[in-house]
């Protein structure tokens, strides 16, 4: 059992001002004391390896001690374990993981250079050294080398963009695409992204709420779906050009689902019924002609 006041953040975690996400803390709060039965992983010096959310919850409710498992390791190995243990944890975005792993750059550069000298080849090759360092950081952070390369090229990114990266609001790739724009234009791109996302979210929420309430659920095969879509070309023309437009909105969701307005579905149904009646009349006329 260790005193909560004796447990501290890893220096790399503290230096980057990282915090437990509200979602993580909310999950721990729902579990309550049950969550505190699992021991926190720490070094002998009290550096937390795994258990940041539990420590934050214990502090919030004045719990004085927590069960811990101690590892006799240094800060470098502790940092590797921190990143390894949180590889699939919510709130540990690729950007923050690379930021933490990048704290090892100097150590990795010295080690990579020493390995080159021991091998007796490519002495003084800074490009090879940096490639080895980038590969090691990617492996430690659990990300692709491409993302590490893009991370290294974000020096001119606006602070607002970097903050959005740190919170997971935008991806490394999106920030990388904006990197060469002036700071003001980067902020404008971020504003547009937020506006676009904000406009899409109500549509998505409304669509799924409606879907949950909807009792008229239809399951179609791909063949039937193709037939349904082909009916759009047979829909009768309207008086105004605007009334002929069909609006399509994309929503982020799992599975294969199509949401149709009642007006569009009834119009397609009418077209299908009209086509079937026309086919029936044509077949009847042909039969009467053969009979005669």
Number of extended strands: 5
Low-confidence stretches: none
Largest sheet data: 3 strands, mixed
Number of domains: 2
Q: SSE order in H/E notation?
A: EHHEEHEEHHHHHHHHHH
Radius of gyration: 30 Å
Q: Termini separation (Å)?
A: 101 Å
Description of the molecule:
The chain has 13 helices and five strands. A hairpin with a 4-residue loop joins strand 2 and strand 3 (48-50). It folds into two domains: 2-182, no CATH class; 222-291, no CATH class. The model has no long low-confidence stretch (mean pLDDT 79). The longest helix is centred in the C-terminal third of the chain and has 31 residues, at 183-213. The radius of gyration is 30 Å and the shape is extended. By secondary structure, the chain is mostly helical. The strands form two sheets. The chain has a three-stranded mixed sheet with strand order 3-2-5. A two-stranded antiparallel sheet has the order 1-4. The chain has helices spanning 11-15, 22-31, 52-60, 75-85, 94-101, 105-119, 126-141, 145-152, 159-166, 172-178, 183-213, 222-230, 262-291; strands spanning 2-3, 40-43, 48-50, 65-66, 68-71.
